[in-house]
Amino acid sequence: MANSPRISAGGWLARARSRLRGSENPGLEAQILLAHVLEQPRAWVLAHLEQELSGAQAALLDEML
Q1: How far apart are the C-alpha atoms of 33 and 62, rounded to whole Å?
Q2: Does the structure show a pLDDT above 80 at 38?
Q3: Given a cut of 90, is residue 2 above it in pLDDT?
Q4: Nearest Cα to 51, choosing from 37, 3, 62?
Q5: pLDDT at 1 (0 to 100)
Q6: Beta strands of the chain (E only): which ranges?
Q7: Which residues are registered as beta bridge partners of 7?
Q8: What is the pLDDT of residue 4?
Q9: What pLDDT is stored for residue 24 in this prediction?
Q10: Nearest Cα residue to 53 out of 2, 3, 11, 19
Q11: At how many degrees (to 10) do helices 9-19 and 26-38 cross?
Q12: Distances in Å between the alpha carbon of 2 and those of 6, 8, 15, 34, 55?
């Protein structure tokens, strides 16, 4: 995964919402996962959608999905 493309928090949320489409509240679930991995409150995550995720963070989030 060296040289894997970087993704922003907002980009990851959009992708996660799409993958969680069958769940009751995909947006909320994706936000909670992202907030957990970034160790920030959901409000912070939503205010910083441009935040670039590290490769390790993105990989962990994708595993959690």
Answers
A1: 10
A2: yes
A3: no
A4: 37
A5: 41
A6: 7-8, 52-53
A7: 53
A8: 56
A9: 93
A10: 11
A11: 140
A12: 11, 17, 21, 22, 9
